[in-house]
Amino acid sequence: MLRVAIIGLGTVSTVHYNGIKTSKNGQLVAVCDIDETRQFVYEDVPFYNDVEKMLEQEDIDVAHICLPHYLHHEVSKICLENGVHVFQEKPLSIDYQEGAKTKELAETHKAKIGICFQNRYNDSVIELKRILKEEDTSWITAIKGLVAWNRPEVYYRAQPWRGKWAEAGAGTIINQAIHTLDLIQWFGGDLRFCKASLSNITNMAIEVEDTAVANFTFDNGTTAFYMSTNAYAINSSVELEVVTQKATYVIKENKLFKFDKDGNVTKLAEDEKVQGTKFYYGASHATAIQRFYDAVENDTDDYISVADALPSMLMIDAMKQSSQSNQSLDVSEIINH
């Protein structure tokens, strides 16, 4: 049984806790947060307010990092240097360059770093990936990703770091819609060019953008259109569309549909659902956690790695720089920086 700790007891930590609790081989043995009022969240689990002290006093196999974005790299480094595997909540890092440093950490330490891009394990995504790999769909010509959610100002007031460039890295593109960006690049391939516009269309007192629009071009010629916003009235269903030469595939309302050239529509898959106010997180956190635990126990690479997650940071940095310059950006400028 793996001895597990959670570092950071904010909103998303409860999702990780549920995944630990339902896993076959993980047991929560310690939690850590600088806010000592949270020591009663898990009353039967030892509480610490210092990561290094916790690692000194507890025998930890895996640490779940559920901290503000700007702390991800720093705390992952501490854990790896203490021989502790890391399962890290998204995003990978505050920006691409820091993500590249985390990749170096993962390559130079025996302990593993897994990134929580759980939507890759949704049934709809798995089936679409299989179809594109195994069936005669011809090549992908276009991809569309749409995220229209709601985040009121109280969301940022509750955790002010969420609205700051230096601590969050960005707004909707890194906090709400990064999973959609991850899937766009997972289907699209290696990114080449980006033209984007980031803006604020609400009156919230935040630094980061609440709305983003982008066009991406990949090395294989596939193009993608992306839009995300936190300015909608509700958390609407995420939509992902993949157009091939023979059919169009759409994931919406957690279902995968095929639209053929004759206008026929077929439902191909449907995701497992979760109940509650955070239903839009999806139900695959537990799958991602279990996959990582199995990889740790069996010493395999069957999990979402830092290298898998780094392209999403490239897309985010490309959007930020393109918006600032109001020009199309060749992403090699970021990679070779």
From TrEMBL:
Example GO molecular function: nucleotide binding
InterPro entries: Gfo/Idh/MocA-like_OxRdtase_N (IPR000683), Gfo/Idh/MocA_Oxidoreductase (IPR052515), GFO_IDH_MocA-like_dom (IPR055170), NAD(P)-bd_dom_sf (IPR036291)
A Pfam match: GFO_IDH_MocA
Coiled coil regions, renumbered to chain: none
Domain GFO/IDH/MocA-like oxidoreductase: 127-249
Domain Gfo/Idh/MocA-like oxidoreductase N-terminal: start-end pairs: 2-113
Protein name from the UniProt record: Gfo/Idh/MocA family oxidoreductase
UniProt source species: Candidatus Jeotgalibaca merdavium
